[in-house]
Amino acid sequence: MLSVPYEAQHGTAEQIIAGSQGKTVITVVVPLKPPKVATVWRPAAGSAAEELQAQLGPEAIVVAAFQNIAAGHLKDLNWQADCDVLYTGDSKEAKAVTREIHCCRRLLRRGRRPAGQLVRRRRADRHVDRRQRAQ
């Protein structure tokens, strides 16, 4: 699982390229750029997850998940989601692993929602951005 600030993603990915080949990499990275951290920034590749997939190569299996949940909630082992948990990826098997993590983590009170292939992460990022603005 990759959970780093967006500006650290590239350097961190460089360090895990060899070890990620043939493995599922779940990323919770959201493309935020200071000083406007309340607004999701749109990377040229479309999303931070797509950038990560391009950097790690086709043998790494990237799934983007948990971005619509605040970091504070993810740290709290007693917190249960009262929202849908979105995840995107190109591999059904990797998304199944992500689903199992959701269940084991007891995040599911309301539901989990497969949001499609990795390129759909762009739409999910817009969803996160709208929710942040509403708060």
Describe it for me?
This protein has one domain (6-134): NAD(P)-binding Rossmann-like Domain (Rossmann fold), CATH 3.40.50. Helix content is 41%, strand content 19%. Mean pLDDT is 79; it is low at 107-112. A 4-stranded mixed β-sheet has the order 1-4-5-6, sandwiched between helices. It contains 5 helices and 6 strands; from the N terminus they run H-E-E-E-H-E-H-E-H-E-H. With 135 residues, the protein is an alpha/beta fold. The chain has helices spanning 6-20, 48-56, 71-75, 92-104, 121-134; strands at 24-27, 32-33, 36-40, 61-65, 84-89, 111-114.
Write a concise synopsis of the structure shown:
With 135 residues, the protein is α/β, with parallel strands linked by helices.
Task: Assign the CATH superfamily.
Answer: NAD(P)-binding Rossmann-like Domain
Count of alpha/pi helices: 5
* Radius of gyration using CA atoms only: 14 Å
Largest sheet: 4 strands, mixed
Helix vs. strand class: alpha/beta
Q: What strand order characterises the main sheet?
A: 1-4-5-6
**Annotated CATH topology:** Rossmann fold
Average pLDDT: 79
Work out the helicity level. 40-55%
Task: Using the coordinates above, name the CATH class.
Answer: Alpha Beta
Assess the beta-strand content as a share of residues. Answer: 15-25%
In total, the number of domains comes to 1
**End-to-end Cα distance:** 27 Å
Annotation, overall tally of beta strands: 6
Per the principal axes of the C-alpha atoms, what is the gross shape? globular
